[in-house]
Structures are given as C-alpha cells and as structure tokens.
Amino acid sequence: MKYIVFILFVSFNIEALALDYIVSFYDKPDTPRILGLINAFHRGEVVEGVDIIKVSSNSQNKNVYLLGSKKWENLGTPIKRKIEPDVALEIKKLYKPAPYDTVKKNSDEFELYIRAIERDKRDVGRIYNIKIAGENSNYINLSLFIKEKFYAFQRSANFFSEDEVSIVYSDDVILNFSNKIKLGTTYIILEECIANVYDKVPFWGDVPLIGRFFRTEGKSKSIRAICAIEITKE
Q: Could you tell me where the beta strands, DSSP code E, fall in the chain?
C-alpha cells in the first residue's frame, strides 16, 4: 500500500512540474507604428530594440523574418490559447465569400454572384497551425504552418439568356517554417517577396536576338506582416 501511495505521489508531482504554455496570437499586426518600423527594416535601416531573425526558406523568391520585441504597442487584442509541447494548435480566421465591392448591391449582377455563392458556399481565409517543442527556461522551438483559402468568380456572357457566374475555390500554403524563439517576446512574422524586373529600351529591347542587349534586369521587393506570436509560460 505504501508503494502505491508513493507512486501516486511521484506521478502527481511530475504532472505538477510539467510546463504549460500560452500562445498570444495577433492576425493583423498592421498599426501605423508597426508599419513604419517594417518599412524602416525594409529600407535596411537599423531598428533599435528589435531582434531580427532571418528564417531559412526553400524558396529563392521569398524571405521570412521574425521581428522580436517586448515593447510592441497597440497590436490589438490577442487570441490566447493554451498549448502543449509537440501538440499542434490550430487557429482559423475564416469568413464567407462575398461579391466584389465593385458590383452594385441589389442589382441583377449582384444577384448572379449571390446565387453562385449559394450553389457552392465554403469558408475562406487563413488557417494557422502552431506547434512548439522543447522545454527550456528561455527559448523554445516554434513551428508555423499557414494555409490560405482563396476564391474568385468566373463570369460568362450569353447572347440569348442570362449571364452566368460561378465561384472557384483554391488554397495555397503561404508559410511553413520552424525556428527557435525567446519566451516572453512577441515576434512579428514578415514575408518578403522578390520579383525580377526588366527595363528595356523602347523598340530595340523588343528586337529578336539583339533585344537582350537593350534590357537591364533588377529586383523588386515587397514585404508584408503575416501575423504576430508570443509564447509564454502559464
């Protein structure tokens, strides 16, 4: 009997010592001040008080950065969830599709889009999959997988009957990475896309064979804040 009590006591204390973590999640870290800091970072300026981590990416045309700070302000109200190591947490930010803003409400055209949605109604938006690993007093490994669900309309014009509109759904993985982060620090996840840009001399740049000698190649960069995450101990 003493052995059973001892085993139960040890088991209880092991569970009591297990660490619980809290995820604070922000899906729109786009306040004017935050955007100003992001633009400064994009211009290559030093951003004081911000820990910048470049995450390895498999894409040659995309870079991912984590901007960490304990002093971010006005990020909004976070979504807070408990998370256990090695157990995935899913956060969905979904909404119903709607006709384009350019379509006048209560018009015949608007009704075509509404009927297309009713025939095949699905939620769209983003699904965030968050996982942590390791138990350290200061750092933990964060894995983030983001899928985005899109929709678009296809319209066909008919001469002898009403036009037809259909809705087409698709989805894409927009981010997938794993990296070590510091507990108690809020990280804004940035995506930087790089595109090749070609400038050419009018007329000569379009001439076959020799046109390439009248073109110059450069790169254009665009950057956006995807979300922000903080992991803390409960």
A: 21-26, 51-55, 62-69, 79-83, 89-95, 124-133, 139-156, 164-182, 186-200, 215-233
* DSSP tag of 19: -
Give the CA dihedral 78, 82, 83, 89, nearest 10 degrees: -60
Q: What is the pTM of this model?
A: 0.78
Answer for the pair 191, 62: CB distance below 8 angstroms, yes or no.
Answer: yes
Tell me the residue type at 203. F
At 32 the pLDDT is 77
Position 9, amino acid? F
At residue 189, the pLDDT reads: 93
Residue 167, pLDDT score: 96
Q: Confirm if 79 and 193 have CB atoms less than 8 A apart.
A: no
Query: How many Å separate Cα 176 from the centre of its chain?
Result: 9
Nearest to 192 by CA among 93, 44, 31, 81: 44
